[in-house]
Amino acid sequence: MGIVIGVVGPHDLVDEVAATCEEQLGVSALRLDYDHESQAPAIVEAHAASVEGWLFTGIVPYMLARDADVLSRPASFVDYSGATLLSALVRLQHEGQDVTRLSIDTLAPADIVATFAEAGLPTEEIRTLPYRQGMSSKKAVAFHRRGREHAVVTCLSSVHEALRGEMHVLRLAPSVHSVRVALRQLLLSAEGQAQEDAQIALGLIEVESEEGLLREAAALGGTLAAFRGGTHLLVTTRGPLSDATGGFSSLPMLSRLASHNQVVRVGFGLGRSAAEAESLARRALARARRIGEVAAVLSLRADTDIVLESVTAAPAGGKSLNVIARRVGLSVPTLEKLIEARAAVGDEPLTTREIAERLGVQQRTARRMLHRLELSGLAERTGNLSSGSSGRPLTMYRLTL
Questions:
Q1: CATH class of segment(s) 199-310
Q2: Which of 44, 88, 194, 342 has the highest CB neighbour count under 10 A?
């Protein structure tokens, strides 16, 4: 049995995003399109029982559904910054537009500045209208009309429809890479909700030569042993695996082993017990074999698999807070507060309650933040502490930001 993802967005984006989701083994998509983003909360409420998670084609329908408090399932949205915005700049330049004078809605100013810096472009004459609670398409249209000398870049289909007859307007569409990143985050969130205590990670590795295997196992904080049929067994835990794979996105050891092996196949299973993890690892390896000679797959429960890319993930410690913030979906000020909290306690773990108090948020919000950091290898779950009441135990985390 697979996992059903509800894909919510305008009709001309839903099919494309859903098709990319269904490339992932074990994923089926329920296509739910709207005529206007304001319809997103009603769509979510009507179909909540039919899905295990929600993927929105952009941040606006996601925020509308979240603010309406109708998200009872894990949810994620496709980020339009980075590669998506860069490709839009190239297109605008080909259309003869001045890309240093744009009017951009929805995206965070920090993300826009970071993308323009990567492209070597100035931002002094870029007008921005970041998404805020209560922002409507009418407000966005009025904002763009006040800067008529600027070409418009919008994330909203309703704004594009309103302005395309009077201004040069380009509507951002999600890139395949951005959809895959959002889907990966969603699948891991859904798995985390269903199985918060899944900590054991087992890997089954097929290679022609053992050269470098012990070194790779040590880098994953694990141990290596011979397995049946010439396969090698790598035993580790969720935290080190998440850290080494950049939040379960890429497996750098794949390309390193492929440099002196024609065949490198890796199957990881993440489970609550060694038996469950081994069963999932077998399934992952079988699916890696079907992909090709060099492939890695991480298998979760509910017949859900994540294909790990072979590109090397840059270490989080070398990235700016802006880059980390985009990766984990938290603001820079929040990350700064978390860094202060870590500095205050040194290497000691903090409870979810302590984190919530330091950030001034509810405990459930703190749990969501810490889960995102854990998936990205920036926090490590160290155990539970009784809350002293009949409520759920307090999870303890060691921050590694």
A1: alpha beta
A2: 44
